Amino acid sequence: MNKQLKFLTRTVFIMFLALFFSVTMIQFVNADELRANELNMRTVKNGYKIERGSILVDGDPIAYSTPTSDTYRFLRQYSDGALYSPITGYFSHSQGITGLESAMNQELSGSGDSLFFTRIMNTINGVAPQGSSVQTTIDPKVQASAAAAMTEQGFEGAVVAIEPKTGRILALVSTPSFDPNLLSSNSDAEIIANYSQLDKDPGQPLQNRAIAGDLYHPGSVYKLLVAAAAIENGEATPSSQFANPAELPLPQTSNVMQNASRTTCGTGDKATLEQAIVMSCNIPIAELAMKMDPDTVPEMARAFGFEQELSVPLTVTPSVSPTPEDKAQTALSSIGQLDVRATPLQMAMVSAGIANGGTVMKPTLVDQVITPDLRVSTQVTPEEFAKPISEKTASAVAGMMEKGVSAQEGLARQSGIPGVRVAGKTGTAENGTTAEGNALPFTLWYTGFAPVDDPKVAVAVVVEDGGGEAYGYEGGSYDLPTAVGKRVMEAVLSE
Fold first, then answer.
1. What secondary structure letter does DSSP report for 10?
2. CB of 318 closer than 8 Å to CB of 341
3. pLDDT, tens digit, 9 for 90 and up, residues 116-129
4. Contact at 8 Å (CB) between 332 and 343?
5. Model's pTM, two decimal places?
6. Which residues are catalytic?
7. Facing residues of 393 across strands?
8. Any bridge partners for residue 270, and if so which?
């Protein structure tokens, strides 16, 4: 009997310890994570008990709370909702929270540590609780220009503009977009109906293409990383020469690689690395990549941010650059195909790092957190993310990108701005074929920065489906994303 009692006592004691440990983890260790979970409806409903702080662009509220006479007490509203929804996300009592509404929920709801003593004093004094406001880094003129450049043409895709020296995100656009006011009313039935309609929309407006989603094959903009890796590791210089055939048999396969022109890269027997970047030739880049260790380029991509967790503070889906298994995969990966995938934010970081002398600054959407009594409780300062290449390598790559804009044969020449030194690179990514063997629509890219001598902005643009039905869903439309990129850079430089 004593033996059984001892066993029972020990079992109960172990169960008590397990329960104590579990409760401790939930209430203390995981509390912030659980509160921040966008599916935690208690967090959302508690948020309606206070006046939530505003999300600001250049001091003006783009998300704010207004009092109501119903049980929710406050209604979340959005100015220019569709323009800023990739940034704000939504705050909905039946569909959860996304965007900065989620990432900065503690500050906006007034539950952050910075307002601890303020909450105590408000309780003592009977003052209604109120959340802090979040000042973003977004430039309203640049955001509006980027969105207009995409929507006026009916493009699906995304635009990201970054200040290279600080990492401040000046524009973050995803199209098609949606109006978060549709999900923030105090009618559950209305919200559910609106969400269902948005969720079923074939254009997927709820997907933030700038930082998440299914990601994109980067195509030829990925060649910047091949060039950076080769120059940084002493494998090549811009003047290095490569064999210049019109077709390149891929090792141990029956497939051949061609340049986009289906001809040689220029007219000579040899082509330089600079020619390959300026004219966006595939074969010289593939030859260079196959000459190096198969992990050289993926390692450079990771140094720029591929495969890394990143918060801006919106959670960014990591871009992908796996190590190729053989020479054929190395060749295909080097031109941004196969399993290589990237977000527009990641490609903007690549251009920004090149522009900033080889140093990539950590991108951010938040500039300040301002308390209800107008104190700045948090000031976000520029932070170095990585230094993947030397200043010398960055200068060499930037020089090739600049010639891609200034040279007559440069495919990025449409992004030229009179009186300004612009560096740019185009890209066209193939996306396979249908079950019937027909080519799927292409993905079009542009990335670049300006001015070359004092960079104020780095931009990445992606246009899905070759520009859409109006453009025949075809590749080679270099002027489409390039024109968008030019317009965004002009918006920054005009200020």
1. H
2. no
3. 555 455 555 444 57
4. no
5. 0.88
6. 220
7. none
8. 243
